[in-house]
Amino acid sequence: MSEWLLATEALNKSFGAVVASEALSLRVRRGEIHALIGPNGAGKTTVINQLAGEIAPDSGAIHFEERDITDWSVDRRARLGLARTFQISTLFDQLSVADNLSLGVQPRLGHSYRFWRRADQDPALTEPVRMLLSSLELEALANQRAGSLAHGDRRRLELAMALAGQPTMLLLDEPMAGTGPESSRDVARLLESLKGRITMLLVEHDMDVVFAIADTVSVMVSGRCIATGKPDDVRADPEVRRAYLGENG
Amino acid sequence: MIGPTGRRLLVWYAGGAALLLLPLLADIAGEPFMVSLFSRILIYAIAAVSLDLLLGFGAMVSLGHAAFFGVGAYVVAILAFHGAEGGPAGSGFLALTGTNNALVSWPLAVVVSAMAAAVIGALSLRTSGVYFIMITLAFAQMLFYFFDSLETYGGDDGLSIWGRNDLLGLDLANDTTFYYVCFVCLAAFLAVCQRLVNSRFGMVIRGCAQNERRMRALGFPTYRYKLLCFAIAGAGAGLAGALIANQTEYVSPGLLHWTRSGELLVMVILGGMGTLVGPVLGAIALLLGEDLLAIVTEHWQLYLGPFLILVVLATRRGIYGLVVGRSGEHE
C-alpha cells in the first residue's frame, strides 16, 4: 500500500486568462489532515472541484487509492470513497435532517433500485442514520426540514452527509465558513476525532484551527503551491510569510 | 377541527368512497352519462399521476407526456384493427398478429410506452431546465406527426375500434363495468406510486429534484435513476392510453398533441404537484369544470382560464393544498 492516498501530477487548469491551477502536485498521506491554505482567489476551491470530479483539469492526472481517477465521474469517485463537503451548504432543503442523512447512507448499500419497501422503515438505513445523528448531536433536529435549520446546524449536517457514506477521504471546503467561534471549535474537535480513520484535505481560512489540527500544510498562491510541510516549518517559511501570512498580520 | 393528517386521510377515504359509489349516485340522480364522463376522468387521472412522478417528485418538467398516452392508445387500437381485419401486419420476425384480448394488448401498451419514454428520456435527460421542456415537446410532436402520417391507421382521421377489448370475460361494453375497471386501474396505480415515492428509489428521485449536484457528490449516478423514473412515468401514461382507446373506441393523433400534454400539466399543477391525490383532484376539477361550464356558456374557456390562474397563485399545492392545509407534505 502506498504511503500516499491521493496524489496529483502537474494539474493545470485555466479559465480563459485566469490560471486557477498551475503545475499543481499535491500529495496527501494516508490518515493525515492536510490543510490547503492561501489568500482568496488562490484556486483552492478549484482544486477541490477537480479532485471531486466536477471540473476536468486541462492537463495532469489525479491518483486516488493507487488508481488513475482523472476521467472518473463525480459519483464514481464518491463510491470509491472520496467524499466532499461544499463551501455553501448543499442540502435537500425540503427533506428532514434524517432523510438527508438517509440519502447519504444509501450509496454504500449498493444500488437504490428498490421500489417497494419504505425507506424510512428500513433498518439498513435508519440504524446508520440514528448513529450519525447521535455522533453529530443532531438527534433533536432529526425531523426538522433541512431548509429551516440555523446556519451552524446546516454546516454540521453538511459534514454529516459526507460522513454518512463512510468515506476513506474527505475533501472539506471551508467546513467552518460563517460559523461562530464556538461551533468552529466543535467542528475542529470533530475533525480531530476522525483523524487517522479518515484522511482529510482541509481548505480553511481560520488559521488557529489549521495550525492546531493539521499534520501537513500546503500553501497556494495564484494557482501554484509555494510550500508544503509541517505546520511549524510552513509558518517559518519566508516566502509564505511574504506571500500570505504577512499580509494578514 | 381535524388536523392535516386527518384531513389527508379524509381526502383518500371520502374521495375513494365517492368514486366507488359514483355509478350508483349517477343512477339515483338520473344522470347515467356521468358514469362515462367519470371513466374518462379516472383515465386522465392515471395519466396525470404518472406525470406528477416526473413533475412533482422528480422536478422534470416534461411538455411531451401525452406522447406516451397516445402511444399506449395506438398500440391497443392497432392490435384491435389487425384482430378485426384478420391480417397480420408486417412479415417474418416482425409479424404482428392482431388481438382483442386486453390481457395482451394492455400490458403491451404499457411496455411500448415505457420503451418510447426510455428512448426519448435517454436523449432529453442530457439537458435540463427550459431545454428539457423544449426537447420533450419536440419529441412528442415528432411522434404526433408520425401517427398523423400513418395512412394505414387512418392518418389524421384517426382509427376506430370495433368494440372494446375482452378482459377476462367482463362486459366492457357496459359503461358501469368499464368504469370499475378504470377505478381498479387507478387504485392499483396509486398504490404502486405510493410505495414507489417512499422507497429508496423514490427518495433518490426526490433528492435529484432538490439537489442533483449533491446527489452526485454522494455517489448516485443520477442520470440512470431519472431515466428509469421517466420510463415508469411513460408506462403509467401508456396504461391510461390503453384505457382511453377502449373508452372512446377511437384513437387519433390528437391524443399525442402538445396541447394534451399541457392539459395534463394543468391537472397536476391545479390539483397539487408533489402529491399523489393532487393530480386526481386536478383531473376531476378540470374535466368536470369543462363539462359543467360548457352547459352554462359556450365561452367556458373564458372562465376556466382565470380560475386556473387564481388557484395557482392563491395556493401552494393546488386544490390538495387547500383541502389539507399548508403542512401538506409528501404523503
Describe it.
The complex is a heterodimer of chains A (249) and B (331). Chain A has 249 residues and is an alpha/beta fold. Chain A is built from 9 helices and 11 strands. Chain A has 2 domains: 1-81 and 168-182 and 196-249, P-loop containing nucleotide triphosphate hydrolases (Rossmann fold); 96-166, no CATH class. In chain A, helix 3 (97-105) packs across helix 4 (123-135). In chain A, strands 7-8-9-4-10-11 form a 6-stranded mixed beta sheet, with helices on both faces. In chain A, strands 1, 2, 3, 5 and 6 form a 5-stranded antiparallel beta sheet that branches. The two termini of chain B are 20 Å apart. The model of chain B has no long low-confidence stretch (mean pLDDT 88). Chain B contains 13 helices and 2 strands, in the order H-H-H-H-H-E-H-H-H-H-E-H-H-H-H. Chain B has a two-stranded antiparallel ribbon with strand order 1-2. Chain B has a single domain (4-324), classed as ABC transporter involved in vitamin B12 uptake, BtuC, CATH 1.10.3470. The interface between A and B is medium-sized, with 38 and 25 residues.
Task: Note the main attributes of this structure.
heterodimer, A: 249 residues, alpha/beta, Rossmann fold, 2 domains, six-stranded mixed beta sheet, five-stranded antiparallel beta sheet, 9 helices, globular, B: 331 residues, ABC transporter involved in vitamin B12 uptake, BtuC, two-stranded antiparallel sheet
**What is the overall pLDDT average of chain B?**
88
> What string gives the helices and strands of chain B in order?
HHHHHEHHHHEHHHH
Quickly count the domains of chain B.
Answer: 1
Compute the gyration radius of chain A: what is it?
18 Å
Poorly predicted runs of chain A are none
Question: How many individual domains of chain A?
Answer: 2
Question: What share of residues of chain B is helical?
Answer: over 70%
Strand content of chain A: 15-25%
Number of DSSP-assigned strands of chain A: 11
Tell me about the largest β-sheet of chain B: 2 strands, antiparallel
Helical segment count of chain B: 13
Distance between the termini of chain A: 41 Å
